[in-house]
Design brief:
Strand content: 5-15%
Structural class: alpha+beta
Helix content: 40-55%
Shape: elongated
Strand order of the largest sheet: 7-1-12-9-10
Low-confidence stretches: 53-63, 76-80, 248-252, 300-321, 417-422
Number of domains: 2
Keywords: Cell inner membrane, Cell membrane, Membrane, Protein transport, Signal-anchor, Transmembrane, Transmembrane helix, Transport
Mean pLDDT: 76
GO molecular function, one term: energy transducer activity
Largest sheet: 5 strands, mixed
Order of helices and strands: HHHEHEHEEEHHHHHEHHEEHEEHEE
Organism: Thalassotalea euphylliae
GO cellular component, one term: outer membrane-bounded periplasmic space
Distance between the termini: 44 Å
GO biological process, one term: protein transport
Length: 422
């Protein structure tokens, strides 16, 4: 799991920074709905580095790929002691957060004995007439809230009719119904799971807070679309009234005043008052930027991928090279060489078929001679590369064999001394 975190930390950080900066400086130039949808890139960033896409458009020239890798002797599991405490700490953080949220949610669910199915009078609202959303009365004073993931329920406080005017009641119900129709409860749960997995990352917490704000703002704009000014004013007043109430914390709930501290409420009210200046150019730029980020993530996933067979291996190839293995088997350190503490390098020439398999392997140079040739060739034969239209020929890879990190052996770049011919 620590390896997985190492794979996704850079893409996750990159996307989080882009989304936060975009929200900070460009949010007034595109719709709140688009701003909310942009957050979908964050969970995608956690899986894109592992998605292998065929490179059907690549026409690879001879000798284009020159790679270099380091194989470290693993007679003893050098990395295990270091990884175990990290895994324990990370797992403790994940379980603590999930446990805390689950307990709070169970407390809320256990209060169901005080919930009563809403009367017909409340259900007469045209907003709820054709909805499958079930409405319940509670004895609490907090603002209306959605509770649950699979079958969400709308909780209405006991003083709902007294706190809000008829128009405000309708707008609030439209707001909660908007969350229900968009399955926001599911997305919020996914967001919390991401926070739990990335609990050590400050941007994960900040991104989740901004995500929830954008969720509320997009719902506000959906409800107020094509509404008159008086209606917008009444809606803003309803937000101020709701800000005085605090619903209990739950793992899966959505309140009309969710994240309703005064700063957030004022932000929502300002968005209602000011709206946004729709710019097709900025919207297109955001879309292109998002696609560029995803492409960068995909490339980063190739550049920073690690091998699960030996966690102590270190990649030394030039990350600018276009061709990279998707499956890389580490060579086994020869027993006699390990006993004698012999270190060295082997340069291999090979072809890549259109399906991505390795063929025509030959030893071009080895230091020392005939020590690491066999294990290097055996390992390379099991490598797998991305599929392509025509494959590739005359590729070079240098495998360096090192006993430990304290090695004083001079691992020269032997590929610079080689001219490859057919």
């Amino acid at each position: 799991m620590i390896n997985w975190l190492g794979e996704v930390i850079i893409p996750f950080t990159l996307v989080a920074v882009v989304l936060l900066l975009t929200r900070r400086y460009l949010s007034h130039f595109y719709s709140p709905q688009m701003g909310y949808a942009n957050w979908l890139l964050l969970p995608v960033s956690l899986i894109v580095p592992f998605i292998e896409l065929p490179n059907w458009f690549a026409v690879v020239s001879e000798g284009q790929s020159v790679q270099r890798y380091l194989a470290v002797y693993t007679g003893e599991p050098l990395s295990a002691p270091a990884e175990l405490p990290l895994l324990t700490i990370w797992l403790a953080g994940v379980l603590s957060l999930l446990g805390f949220w689950s307990i709070q949610h169970l407390k809320l669910i256990n209060s169901q004995s005080n919930w009563q199915l809403a009367t017909n009078e409340l259900l007469h609202h045209e907003v709820l007439a054709n909805s499958a959303l079930k409405v319940y009365r509670t004895q609490q004073d907090y603002s209306p809230a959605l509770v649950g993931i699979v079958k969400p329920k709308l909780l209405i406080p006991k003083h709902f009719e007294h706190l809000y005017s008829k128009e405000q009641q309708q707008l609030i119900l439209e707001h909660e119904l908007c969350h229900f129709n968009r399955n926001d409860m599911v997305w919020n749960t996914i967001g919390l799971l991401i926070v739990a997995l990335m609990w050590f990352h400050p941007l994960a917490w900040l991104a989740y807070l901004r995500f929830r704000r954008d969720q509320e703002i997009s719902c506000d704009q959906t409800v107020l679309a094509r509404k008159h000014t008086t209606c917008r004013i009444n809606y803003s007043k309803a937000l101020l009234v709701a800000a005085q109430a605090s619903p209990p914390l739950g793992f899966a709930q959505l309140s009309f005043k969710e994240y309703g501290d005064k700063n957030v409420m004022f932000e929502r009210i300002n968005m209602i008052k000011q709206g946004y200046q729709k710019s097709k150019l900025v919207s297109a730029a955001v879309l292109v930027g998002a696609l560029s980020v995803m492409s960068a993530i995909s490339y980063a996933g190739d550049g920073y991928s690690t091998n699960d067979t030996h966690k102590s291996s270190k990649k030394m190839s030039n990350l600018a090279d276009h061709i990279k293995p998707t499956v890389r088997i580490e060579p086994k350190y020869p027993i006699q060489a390990a006993r004698d503490r012999v270190e060295g390098s082997v340069v291999l020439k090979f072809d890549i078929t259109p399906s991505g398999s390795v063929s025509n392997i030959s030893v071009v140079k080895a230091i020392p001679e005939n020590v690491f040739n066999k294990v290097a060739t055996t390992a390379l034969a099991q490598w797998q590369y991305e599929t392509s239209a025509s494959g590739s020929t005359n590729n070079l890879v240098q495998l360096d064999f090192m006993m430990d990190d304290n090695s004083t052996f001079n691992f020269a770049n032997l590929t610079e001394q080689i001219t490859v011919s057919n």
